[in-house]
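Subject line: Sequence and fold of a protein, written as structure tokens
Body of memo: The sequence and its backbone structure tokens, given next.
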Amino acid sequence: DAKGRRLPSVWAYQADQKLADRAASRQREDEDALLIVMHNAPDRAIASWATSLGWIAATTGEPLKSRVHRTLERLKAEKLVTQKRARWILTSPGKKEAERLEEQAQ
């Protein structure tokens, strides 16, 4: 700046298609796994779902609740889950998809 102080800057680069595909695949895997856990344990808390899925912070050992929240928001956009009275629940299409995923896994 005018006073000679260093300014932070952001470096951006274009991700290659392989990296973008891996990110999309991981998101889909997260969504599928959460649908199944919600179907099998609908009354559990978000932290419990994170623990069941093995989504645990390596440094603190705490459940990654933010990862569950992000995944829930994507599922909500697809109308597979909804939030009622501060609880997340599967919608009818969400239950059907969870059942299909469980059947596919067998």
